[in-house]
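**Polypeptide and fold**
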Amino acid sequence: MDLQSIEMRNLEVQDYQELKKSMKSAYMDMDEDYWDANSIRKLIKIFPEGQICITVNDMVVGCALAIIVDYQKFGDNHTYKQITGDSTFKTHNEKGDVLYGIDVFIHPKYRGLRLARRLYDARKALCEKLNLKSIIAGGRIPNYQKFQNELTPRQYIDKVKYKEIYDPTLSFQLSNDFHVRKVLKNYLPEDSRSKGFATLIEWNNVYYEEVSDAINHKTVVRIGLVQWQMRSYSNISELMKHAEYFVDAVSDYQADFILFPELFNTPLMADYNHMDSAKAMRELAKYTQPIIEEFSKLAVSYNVNIVAGSMPYIFEESLYNVSYLFRRNGSMEEVYKIHPTPAEISSWGMRGGDEVKVFDTDCGKIGILICYDVEFPELSRILAGQDMQILFVPFLTDTQNGYNRVKFCAQARAVENECYVAIAGCVGNLPNVNNMGISYAQSAVFTPSDFGFPTNGIQSEATPNTEMIVIADVDLSLLDELHEYGSVQNIKDRRTDLYNITFNGKRV
């Protein structure tokens, strides 16, 4: 074969006769099933960028045709006839969100030269350029006819996926980062080799940015951690003066978030040493509302989102351990600790909450789990199911063993949920507060473990048992790439056909 030149360009009307010859050769098993000149002319007129051809020695030998659709109008249960408007292409919508592939083929004589891969790459580049969510298409499964009496379409697709069966169309699509959304029935009834079935395939554009009137979320987010020294305070004003010092210091670095440790305000319990521990903690809870009001002001005045560790809170006569998110726009959220430790229950009578949810911020979606909660992987998996990008974990541990439980579990959560995890704890001791002994911490920001991230999975960490701040930048766009192209894909590869998580009776 004499290959003097290979060129990829947009299809032109005058290419039709050569295009027709290649189409007829490519679709010999589907008699007369090729585009007429009027259809090609119409496609070029309404969407010239979407019609791509490849030439060898100036002869058209392959082509990829596409339109843009508003996908929610069709959903996953559609036919080829419906998505193309019965080949009128009235379904094309330049304001749509999905690049829909309506045809791609290579002349049989020129297969094996990886020309189809070039067409697929060109489509991907176009999808990114036009800021479309994804490429979707109905794919043939031409070798299914050989297995129709032995396998269901789903079984056939699974065997192709695991390379037990080769399908010239589906095998190629899977190798080009497409995944199967579902099996379509009667998508293209005249496709006898596929027996009317088709795979609804999709390639996700990880660079897609949703167009919104709101301010776009940042890609690189700066996190500040406060490793808080336990010390005596004579009143709430002294404690909040110390807290504001750290907010001021972290905000000087233009941080987007600041994380305080769990129960950082327990030095105020010193005035209640004459009471038993449970009563003293309930007295401490009376300080929570004034502290909330102060933190809310600090978040706005210093222009930083504050995760204010945790504090005791009484609700309907029951005592809870509660964390608070103060957004810099003045809004506030609260998170109840789900699993009080045995000591928290026996000493203070703490109860657990019953809600796990992700919060939207101006710097992405975040979750908060308080200390012991991070040791329960189901909770962070629920948050990951809500598209969490950063998990904040305020903690309070007394020994290195206790700290390592939090650390190791937090690192595991970062890997298995493909997210960042920030932990911050208290250091030092409170000899003058009953039931509050020593504290051990090494605050840190953990990352997933893959290319593009630190080899040890640690973005930044504090010096152990020393009061200080930690500043770390995390790139949220790296998470998008990890989800789609990671060496392993923990979220995608879950065997939900075998196991699931349910929360409050609902499947996650």
Notes: The radius of gyration is 29 Å.
